[in-house]
């Protein structure tokens, strides 16, 4: 095959623009080579085969700017769509004379894994399967394609997985690949689309930057350091699918101790019971290191938070935001990346099952070794901070114990029969569901509260009461009435 570069030399082509034969003039987004008519389809069904697989788009291309870019130029070692009426140098190609064509190019056999199935590749160091796709799609379309195949866009939770993906994707044609990260639900609050915790970060320098307030989906450049970048979700990139084939990780419950007569499973004075756990909220200016030591002396660990239910409980029991402090102050919890940078683990060694980062966190701000994690009193989410800085307190956690009782169970103190409910602030709350009450209309529930319990349907005046109620209601499958109504004046 002979190639002629018009008005240039091979060295100069790197810094100039040249027309190549790819275009979508006949049908928008359906690219074909002028030489042979082979198709390079950008929007396609996931199971459709390509007639030609190689592509080398520049970052964030093709973008069809202005709706008039139907021809392709070679620029800076990659492809860019451009208006066909623009003037460019060009590259001509033809078969050489008297030289037979070589054997046809054979396709690479489709990968197969016994655990994962056809089309999937197994990471030998984990129980996860992957597909590495050069098909150019938007983030939404790429995720839909992964889900149709039983997986999701890839999440990355440790350096070992990142290295595996880096190595495997090094030979791909795509300039960038989609991962499962997104902050579309809350700007700066990055989560994985497969709902796994965000316990590892690998952003490029000064990323994510939400350039032009339009970058809400995560990808990474294959040949630029293998670090993450935020992109507009409608850009076309290759993508990585991931699925799990092994047993699911669960936290084994502690064995329930035998409870002698006259005693109960509960918490000592100064601790609050939630589920099968005791929690202490210690208000004292301390570094994370000092808080960790003191908590262990109390028989516990800085708190692990395994669910939104537990996050709600913590938020409900933290003090109100403190005046004069950034975001009202903070309390330490047990998450940190002290051992491996950017890889967050719990102090008690349990797996990370849940995260609740504040917007744009964790960020290791100003490279100040922000290796410990606290909960903002005002921001309600988590923040990484230097372990030697002072927070306004800490949350300590340990299992329930057999506790002697001299009367009423402390869980119900202040809330007399028939409440048997939960005390919070200056009020008692009882959750009346199908286990101990019939299902009622709002009017009947309000009447029952007034006549039988001498109370009212619950009033929720601030986010603390909301978090307190949510910490108990979210573990149930039923729906509960509260006291809000617009019966007197609809819409208000």
UniProtKB/TrEMBL annotation:
Keyword Manganese attached: no
Gene3D superfamilies assigned: Mannose-Binding Protein A, subunit A
Keywords: Disulfide bond
Domain (C-type lectin): residue spans on this chain: 18-93, 125-242, 274-388, 424-492
PROSITE patterns found in the cross-reference section: C_TYPE_LECTIN_1, C_TYPE_LECTIN_2
InterPro entries: C-type_lectin-like, C-type_lectin-like/link_sf, C-type_lectin/snaclec_domain, C-type_lectin_CS, CTDL_fold
Organism: Mytilus coruscus
Protein name: MRC
Keyword Disulfide bond: yes
SMART domains: CLECT (SM00034)
């Amino acid at each position: 095959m002979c190639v002629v570069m018009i008005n240039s030399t091979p060295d100069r082509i790197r810094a100039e623009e040249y027309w190549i034969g790819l275009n979508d003039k006949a049908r928008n987004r359906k690219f074909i080579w002028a030489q042979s008519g082979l198709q390079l389809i950008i929007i396609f069904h996931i199971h459709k085969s390509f007639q030609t697989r190689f592509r080398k788009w520049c970052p964030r291309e093709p973008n069809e700017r202005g709706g008039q870019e139907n021809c392709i130029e070679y620029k800076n070692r990659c492809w860019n769509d451009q208006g066909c009426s623009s003037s460019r140098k060009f590259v001509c190609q033809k078969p050489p004379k008297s030289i037979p064509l070589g054997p046809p190019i054979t396709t690479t056999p489709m990968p197969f894994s016994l655990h994962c199935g056809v089309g999937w590749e197994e990471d030998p160091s984990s129980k996860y399967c992957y597909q590495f796709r050069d098909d150019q799609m938007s983030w939404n379309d790429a995720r839909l394609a992964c889900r149709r195949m039983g997986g999701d866009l890839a999440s990355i939770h440790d350096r070992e997985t990142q290295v595996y993906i880096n190595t495997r994707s090094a030979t791909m044609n795509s300039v960038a690949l989609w991962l499962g990260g997104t902050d579309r639900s809350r700007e700066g609050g990055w989560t994985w689309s497969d709902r796994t915790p965000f316990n590892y970060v690998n952003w490029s320098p000064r990323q994510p930057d939400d350039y032009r307030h339009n970058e809400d989906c995560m990808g990474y450049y294959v040949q630029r350091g293998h670090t993450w970048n935020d992109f507009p979700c409608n850009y076309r990139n290759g993508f990585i699918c991931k699925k799990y084939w092994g047993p699911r990780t669960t936290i084994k419950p502690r064995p329930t101790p035998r409870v002698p007569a006259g005693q109960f499973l509960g918490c000592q004075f100064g601790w609050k019971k939630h589920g099968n756990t005791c929690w202490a909220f210690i208000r004292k200016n301390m570094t994370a290191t000092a808080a960790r030591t003191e908590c262990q002396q109390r028989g516990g660990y800085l708190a692990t938070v395994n669910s939104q239910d537990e996050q709600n409980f913590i938020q409900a029991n933290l003090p109100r935001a403190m005046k004069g402090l950034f975001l009202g102050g903070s309390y330490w919890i047990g998450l940190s990346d002290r051992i491996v940078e950017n890889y967050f683990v719990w102090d008690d060694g349990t797996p990370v099952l849940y995260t609740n980062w504040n917007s744009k966190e964790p960020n290791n701000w100003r490279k100040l070794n922000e290796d410990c994690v606290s909960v903002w009193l005002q921001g309600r989410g988590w923040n990484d901070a230097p372990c030697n800085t002072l927070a306004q307190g800490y949350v300590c956690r340990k299992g329930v114990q057999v506790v002697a009782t001299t009367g009423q169970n402390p869980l119900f103190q202040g809330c007399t029969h028939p409440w048997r409910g939960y005390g919070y602030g200056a009020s008692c709350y009882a959750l009346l569901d199908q286990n101990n009450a019939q299902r009622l209309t709002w009017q009947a529930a309000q009447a029952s509260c007034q006549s039988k319990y001498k109370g009212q349907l619950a009033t929720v005046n601030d986010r603390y009461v909301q978090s307190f109620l949510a910490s108990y209601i979210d573990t149930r499958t039923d729906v509960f009435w509260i006291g809000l109504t617009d019966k007197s004046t609809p819409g208000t």
